[in-house]
Amino acid sequence: MIRGINIVLFVISIFFLIGVYSIKFQSEAVEEEKMALARTIEQQQGELSVLQADWAFFSQPSYISQMVERHSEVLNLQILESKQYGSIEDIPMRPEIIDDSALTALFAALEEGIDPIGDKLAELMAQ
Predict the structure, then answer these.
(1) What is the pLDDT of residues 19-42, one digit of tens each?
(2) How many Cβ atoms are within 10 Å of 108's Cβ, its own excluded?
(3) Is 106 exposed, middle or buried (0-12, 13-18, 19+ CB in 10 A)?
(4) In 59-113, which ranges are continuous DSSP H helix?
(5) Neighbour count for residue 52 (Cβ, 10 Å)
(6) Which of 12, 93, 101, 102 is most exposed, with the fewest beta carbons within 10 Å of its own?
(7) Model-level pTM?
(8) Alpha-carbon distances, residue 126 vs 19, 117, 122 (angstroms)
(9) Contact yes or no for 68/75 (Cβ under 8 A)
(10) Distances 5 to 11, 17, 62, 84, 100 between C-alpha atoms, Å
């Protein structure tokens, strides 16, 4: 009887030993994967810092102006003049009283089941 219990316990301990080693190897594999990802992230961060430095250099006005001068014949760029921009007087003033009758009519039509915008689009598409 005791011999049978010892054999059963021995077999159970072997299964537990196999389970512990399996868990150990799985955890080592996960650790290796984690370290590989950490190395990849570190490498990509290094590449990103190089790209940011390149972007900072290439977006400097002095660098861009040299390129523009070098390729001015091909690009056919001209210097902007202030008259090309609009003035503040060109901006229309906001009306003091907002006319919302069109919006109110649209909502009323939609509540009645009429879609004036969809109807107009269908009419334009038919042309």
Answers:
(1) 999 999 999 999 999 999 999 999
(2) 10
(3) middle
(4) 61-70, 72-75, 101-111
(5) 10
(6) 93
(7) 0.45
(8) 74, 14, 6
(9) yes
(10) 10, 18, 87, 98, 92
